[in-house]
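Changelog note: in this version the structure field was regenerated for every chain. One regenerated record is shown below for reference.
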Amino acid sequence: MGDDSSTATFRHLLADQWEYQLQDDPLFATWVGDHRYDHLLPHVREADFARRIERLHGFHARLESIPRDDLSPSDQLNHDLFGRELHNRTQWMEFRAYRMPISRTSGFHSGFPDLFLEMPFNTVREYENYIARLSAFREYAGEYVEIMREGLRGGQVPARVTLEGVDDTVRTQIVEDPTKSPLDQPFAKFPPSVPTEECERLREAGRRAILTSVVGGYSGLLRFVLDEYLPSARSDIAAASLPDGRAYYASCIYRHTTLELAPERIHEIGMSEVKRIRAEMEALIRKTGFQGTFREFIEYLRADPRFYATTPDALMKETAYVLKRIDGELPRLFKTLPRTPYGIRAIPDFKAPGNTTAYYDPPAGDGTKAGFYYVNLYDLKSRPLYEIEALSLHEAVPGHHLQLALQQELGDLPPFRRFTHFTAFIEGWALYAERLGLEIGFFQDPYSDFARLSYEMWRACRLVVDTGMHALGWTRQRAIDFMAENTSSTLLNITNEVDRYIAWPGQALAYKMGELKIRELRGAAEKALRPRFDIREFHDVVLRNGAIPLDLLEDIAMQWIEEQRGAGTPESPGAPGEGGENE
């Protein structure tokens, strides 16, 4: 039991910070299901970030004043996680990373056209909220332009290769006919709950906001990108070349992996994993009967039309079939499954060319929207059918959807934990989920199994190329060549991915480092418990706290193993890549 006074003080702090976050970021509030601020957009001026840093320091000081030992075990974990969250947010802002808000693959410019997917449209008021946000976009985009100008003055400037194509994405939103904008979709058809006599007024107001505010905002952004931002962008790609760059990259590693590891050590782990996986891939090539070299096999996979869908519908249908097969096998691996469903959608045309093969969008926090697995239908020759099983296991179930939907449904957790994104846990789990396909009857086709290994290789290569480019002097072309030499991914996918790593330092490290830790913990449990090991119980232990840092996950898992053994403490598996089954 915890001290009542300390517990009350701590709970009050959590409530204060949560309410502040909802007010400060109305888009986040909408996403988590709080619709009080649906008429507002966030402010992103330099003064706003200075205020946020000051508030975060204030919350941290309040946290430090609460004796951790006075709290219950569950609130001690909340205390630790809250401290990590505050630290990560504060450090990111203090490095002024917010001054680099756009790239070819992500940013407010590509996210805003999806706004209508996140908002409710059942009443006149809800439509008016949406129109208010459309009307505020020009100011919102202008504030981002000023933030990027601050970056030009302060040295927080993206690498040029990450901005190439941004102008194309922006241009697609500059329309003469508002009905051609994706943001017009709510006005094309109104629900019966909106009075007929209001529909035309709302439609006219919405389309006027698109033509003035949205088109105006994107037009100003395009001029800035072409006239100022692209000409001033860095030719260098390394995070280490930014102001205080080595410290910044170290903070990126810690934020995304939750581990304090030097880039050189992560690079070594990556090279070791690449060597191991490459040997498994070579063995599988021999199993198919192919007589050529590794490179010839890759070219064979890329060239043979039998491995590719001929229409977008065919690719979507094959994906849906695989997903339904996976759904039926989940109870073999999990005690607890999410109540929230998921669906599949195509990545919108305007952002498909520069995007990844697939991604996942979590459900709304209030349960009004399912999770969605987005599939890239651009350039079907780059979307082989044999990759569908590994992709679906990762992005939907038992990967992102199962984990994130379950996390949002953990009603006994404070709100910040239901929506916490420790990348190493989330992406590490999703990569671990790909391998689970072997245990439920998938990857029977050697080409599909080769894709699984190639996807694992892809994540191992990330350890090498992310650290290589940002800390060890690698060029972009060297990274592309390394990925092309060791994976079956197409050159389009590889180039888009490498540019994503350049734009988002450290994030790509999370997948393999997280997966290695989860596999090591499972190996420790299997070794300690032997016939008493229950995979469904182990997965419950891993998932029941939501996303948490890897060191805290290890503490929880090792405590569970000790409890299951009844006595004694099993040997700790150590850091990812250091011992255990991944030696």
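Spot check on this record: The chain has a mean pLDDT of 94. The beta strands are 342-346, 358-361, 371-375.
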